[in-house]
């Protein structure tokens, strides 16, 4: 299952599991939302993390090409 880093408006960074990849990346399609491990955040390029924090709420994940992709909740 795909893991999604969730940047919250309150500054918290969480890690979620995408329930159904075909339905898309949005909050109602997440499960197992927990605090994001620091070691995972070290893998995210600093400029991407700063961008996601600045425009939170924002979701960050690896796409099918294994590249970082960011999106907001469409709903």
Description:
- This protein is an alpha+beta fold and 75 residues long.
- The chain has helices at residues 38-41, 46-54, and strands at 3-7, 13-18, 30-35, 58-62, 68-71.
- A five-stranded antiparallel beta sheet has the order 3-2-1-4-5, with no helix packed on it.
- The radius of gyration is 11 Å and the shape is globular.
Q: Write the H/E string, N to C.
A: EEEHHEE
**What structural class should be given to the helix and strand makeup?**
alpha+beta
What spatial form do the alpha-carbon principal axes imply? globular
Helix residue percentage = 10-25%
Compute the gyration radius: what is it? 11 Å
Largest sheet data: 5 strands, antiparallel
Quote the distance from N terminus to C terminus. Answer: 22 Å
Record the strand order, biggest sheet. 3-2-1-4-5
* Number of helices, counting only DSSP H or I runs of 4 residues or more: 2
Strand content: 25-35%
Quick check: average pLDDT?
94
Question: What is the tally of beta strands?
Answer: 5
Indicate the low-confidence ranges by residue numbers: none
In short:
By secondary structure, the protein is of the alpha+beta class.
Keywords:
about 80 residues, alpha+beta, five-stranded antiparallel β-sheet, 2 helices, about 15% helix, about 35% strand
Which helices and strands appear, and what pairs or packs with what?
Elements: E1 3-7, E2 13-18, E3 30-35, H1 38-41, H2 46-54, E4 58-62, E5 68-71
